[in-house]
Design a protein that fits this description.
Length: 177
């Protein structure tokens, strides 16, 4: 007898007791069905991604424009007020060169996850995505980038409707601004 079984009287069961049928038990596979709703703010955000647009929410009190959008301002403790379309361009706030995939496989060419401050949103407001069409050693904080979208027929209302963000050339800066 261990100290624990003295403390809580009873008969400890082992896996072997179950395997050898010394205990009455049953198995049951739950038929669990989930209907997951993204909510009002993220629902609209995802729908707009399918349209090839980024959208945020504005709080009139603190005047922040937030992306990803939310229906509630955590600064002012009140509901946000309006939808605001944003540009699909931005600035790299931080990034990483990542030599393992999400399921921990080694890769030779690094993935480049980055936080991108989106143009039109308040300072520091951004989303996390991947950078592409850029050499890892060329990525810099403060770099200007633009979304590369999947073709409309391939979009499904997901953040992956943007394939990645690529550096803005001087030509694309003039075109977009
Ligand atoms: Zn606010």
């Amino acid at each position: 007898m261990t100290a624990k079984s003295k403390e809580f009287p009873g008969t400890a069961l082992s896996r072997k007791d179950f395997e050898e049928g010394r205990v009455l038990f049953t198995t049951w596979d739950p038929n669990a069905r989930y209907a997951w709703d993204a909510g009002v703010a993220i629902g609209r955000y995802l729908a707009e991604l399918k349209n090839g647009r980024l959208i945020g929410r504005k709080c009139r009190k603190c005047r922040r424009i937030m992306i990803p959008p939310r229906m509630f301002c955590e600064h002012c403790f009140r509901p946000t007020d309006e939808w605001v379309y944003l540009q699909d361009t931005g600035t790299v706030l931080t990034f990483s060169l990542c030599y393992v995939t999400w399921d921990v496989k080694r890769v030779k060419e690094p993935l480049i996850p980055a936080v991108i401050e989106i143009d039109g949103a308040s300072k520091g407001m951004g989303i996390m995505h991947l950078l592409g069409e850029v050499e890892p050693e060329e990525v810099k904080i403060g770099m200007r980038v633009k979304a590369v979208w999947k073709p409309p027929e391939e979009r499904e209302g997901a953040i992956t409707d943007i394939k990645y963000f690529k550096p803005m050339t001087n030509a694309s800066m003039t075109n977009d601004q």
